[in-house]
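Review box. Two proteins, two foldings.
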Amino acid sequence: MSNRELKIFILFNFSKKDGGGSTFLKSLKKEIGSKGLLCKDPFDADIIIFNSHHEFYKLVKLKFKFPKKKFIHRMDGPLSSNRKHGNIFDKLIYQFNLYLADATIFQSQWSLSSNLNSGLKLVKKYKIIHNASDSTIFNDINKIYYQPSKKCKLISSSWSFHPNKGIDILNQLDNSLDFNKYEMVFIGNEKYKFKNIKNLGVMSSELLGKYLKSSDIYISTSKIEACSNSLIEAVSCGLPSITRNCSSNSEIVKDQRLLYNDMDELLSKLDKVRTSLNRENNYKYNFKSISTITNDYIDFSREIYEDINNSSVNYITFLKLVINIFLFKFLSKLRVTAILKFLI
């Protein structure tokens, strides 16, 4: 099958506000569309890609309506690492993966290993494919480089307001950073409050790209990332990224000069990186362009399409999945989600 013959539908609500996963999927959709492989109607699709825990009701309907189409699950999480009762949500996600997916894409080796440790039963084909940023926005074209006569410009970003996104590090920076040498902006959720760091709020990808290109060093603070889009956006813009050494972050940043484990190490490495700005440092990263990542998705989709095996689901399983979704949403509203561990 040639590229132009394979048709792909992405099941995702693209009208929602930007976040890391949403931003990546928009870029993936745009790139697949540019290759003439995207279809707007799942009826015309050979492959249906669904994301994490989103659109489960629609997913069940599509699988019921088109049982012979191939479904690929882009896995996130595990959610147990990031939210209350996440282990119950993970169990529900794993049921959908087992019964509805013909294959799985993991965003990192860390995400694969962590989901297996959380109870995922992986019995079908899978592939690890990292995320990527929109190369038309996040690149080093017209990058503004460090001016030693001025303060070093630091930047950090996060759309989500969650303790695991690194508020502990940001608060410590706000209190202990030498603001005679540095200035720092934060771009993202407006709930973050600082004394010295300027929170510029949520902005478009285009404007974020401009801020990244006018900054000198990126500070990545998140503890838990399946594959950090914010980090990839920063390094794509040519910024050295001083990065928290946990979860999948070290799969992107491969250079020990940039990885930190605590605040003292962060501050020490920050000063070293600042003094070496505008020099040839050859920092080691592992990331690909959105074009290359899209080709990885297409190649894996073709492999799954050509596989003669197809996941089949009986009516009882369909009913069970629908009931479990309903129970999860209903009990979540009642704030008694823990009951679900006895039901699913």
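Next protein.
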Amino acid sequence: MMVEYTEELNEGSVFIQKAAAPGNDVILKGDDLHEGQVVFPSGTRLRSQDIGVLAAMGVADVGVLKPLRMAILSTGDEIVEISATPVGSQVRDVNAYVILAEAQRMGIQARRIGIVRDDEETIYQTIKTAMEDADIIVLSGGSSVGLMDRSLEVLNRLGKPGVLVHGIAVKPGKPTLIARANQKAILGLPGHPASAFTIFRVIGKALIERLSGTSFPDTIVQAKLSVNIPSNHGREEYMPVKLRKENETLIADPLFGKSGLISLLSMADGYVRIKRESEGLTRDAWVDVTLFDEVKR
């Protein structure tokens, strides 16, 4: 019986204010955890409350996986540092910082190598050096066809099996590259910022989950589309959306725009996946929105 439901009358006498059912307010041995129970399967990302469970078990030390190491490399003559003033067709190195922040958010030991000019041998030597202390190499390339061809040649020179995927039926993100060389994973992202971020969130995250043995579950909410979204059959599409409430109903407003506009993703709360066999989504359709953050801003 909980003490707040009792009253001490005199020495040796206690008045109980409510009925006492057998087993009520009693935690029995094995109620919380029992012998032979798998408390946390391999690959679990421990939260603060999980640490409490370990403490309750008297476990002070647990084996953990070594954090993945990632090297991020930007390639292309048109890319300049963010401190520089772009001239002509030059663009600041947006992608590297976006990917760096996203990787670190997932607990990856990521570092930015810098910008490498459009030269096959320089790109080759830079990636080769980065592979010495990185598990994953992420390339963010320029938009030129010549640079893409050189990237393919470089990746095939680095080791077997070389390039595994060159181009995917996804919008945005068609020119994506996936390679493996000497047991190291290499992901080549599109040059446009929105495309690069989207592909890293979808394919890069899946790659990290596979290599790390853990998972990063997405937060998904249902919302009603405010307008039609046209799409091409045979190509999967990821449409950024902004969420709002209308009479207690969550509404998803598609953010149409060019894949080079990173501001679109900054305004977005998440994205809607349009399957490759679909020709689009209709207004008022209920859709799953994958949030960019666990808590909507």
